[in-house]
Structure formats: structure tokens, C-alpha cells
Design brief:
mainly alpha, two-stranded antiparallel sheet, about 65% helix, elongated
């Protein structure tokens, strides 16, 4: 993953890493990681920091060396890109830009995408995402459902060897119905 970083990014990360490698041993402690990331414009929670450490601390010694740090930053930057994609997708659905996706807006976008959904199907999509029960989807609810669907899709693809992620039930349906079901389930991105 770090191989996707530019030379400029690697230099910037090396400089930041060196600032916090107080004893010059090539490793930063988990406590220092939060400070490093905040200096680079990230704002991780304590739980996120611990998860990040666990993900990249290959040798399990509780510290992060520079190659581990590069992998971590590459992942974080990819997540930031995903967040921008989600914001753009939300804006596409939120036609009147009031901060909410209504059933009418959802139906309109889905129709433009070639999906003729019934009122029940639209209502089902709204219910799936509408955590606060107000009948519309705000940005936080949209992100939550999209990230959950993305994780679910990745797990399905992993389990099916990079297949399309359809269940057996979907495979017995005709292609059009299968596509509609997948789009409704995945909310489309």
C-alpha cells in the first residue's frame, strides 16, 4: 500500500516521523502516533489509534517503524479519499442540498440510474439507513450505511474469490432483477 505514495509524500512523512522519533532508534511509540497524525492534519480517536497500531505493528512490539508508518499513512489517506467520494455521492442524492435525502430524491436518482423502484423498495432503502426515524437520510446516516455496505461487499468478495458478491438467491433471478436487488442493497456508489 505504501508503494502508492509519491516521493513527496514519503519525504513529508519521513520528516514528520523523524520529529517524533526522539531517541533516533527508527521507531515511534503508540503514544507518539497520535501526535504525528495530528501534525499531518488527521484527527484519529484513541480507539482508531489502537486499531491502526494493531493493523501495522507487524512485529507486535508496540512501536511503529518507518515502513509500518508508511503503510498506516497510505491507509489513512485512502480512507480520506473515500470520505470525499461519499460526500460527493451524498450531494448527488441530496438534490435540494438541504442536508437530507428524501424518498422523492432517492427515487429520482435511482430512476436516472435506470432503476425503476417501487415505493416499497424506496421506503425499504430509507428505513435501512434512517437511524433517527425522521423519514429521510442525513449525511451521517448515509455514511454509516455506505461504509457498512462497503465492508459487507468486501467480505462477500473475499469469501467468493473476487466474484460479484451475489447470494445464491440472486443467481437464480434474471439479470435485471439481480442488478436491481444489488443496487438497492448496496445503495450504489
Amino acid at each position: 500500500m505504501a508503494d502508492q505514495l509519491t516521493d513527496d509524500q514519503i519525504s513529508e512523512f519521513k520528516e514528520a516521523f523523524s520529529l517524533f522519533d526522539k531517541d533516533g532508534d527508527g521507531c515511534i511509540t503508540t503514544k507518539e502516533l497520535g501526535t504525528v497524525m495530528r501534525s499531518l492534519g488527521q484527527n484519529p480517536t484513541e480507539a482508531e489509534l489502537q486499531d491502526m497500531i494493531n493493523e501495522v505493528d507487524a512485529d507486535g512490539n508496540g512501536t511503529i517503524d518507518f515502513p509500518e508508518f508508511l503503510n498506516l499513512m497510505a491507509r489513512k489517506m485512502k480512507d480520506t479519499d473515500s470520505e470525499e467520494e461519499l460526500k460527493e455521492a451524498f450531494r448527488v442524492f441530496d438534490k435540494d442540498q438541504n442536508g437530507f435525502i428524501s424518498a422523492a430524491e432517492l427515487r429520482h436518482v435511482m430512476t436516472n440510474l435506470g432503476e425503476k423502484l417501487t415505493d416499497d423498495e424506496v421506503d425499504e432503502m430509507i428505513r435501512e439507513a434512517d437511524v433517527d426515524g425522521d423519514g429521510q437520510i442525513n449525511y451521517e446516516e448515509f455514511v454509516k450505511v455506505m461504509m457498512a455496505k462497503r465492508r459487507q461487499r468486501k467480505m462477500t468478495e473475499k469469501n467468493q474469490g473476487q466474484g460479484g458478491g451475489f447470494s445464491k438467491e440472486d443467481k437464480v433471478n434474471d439479470g435485471k432483477k439481480r442488478r436491481r436487488r444489488r443496487n438497492r442493497d448496496c445503495w450504489i456508489l
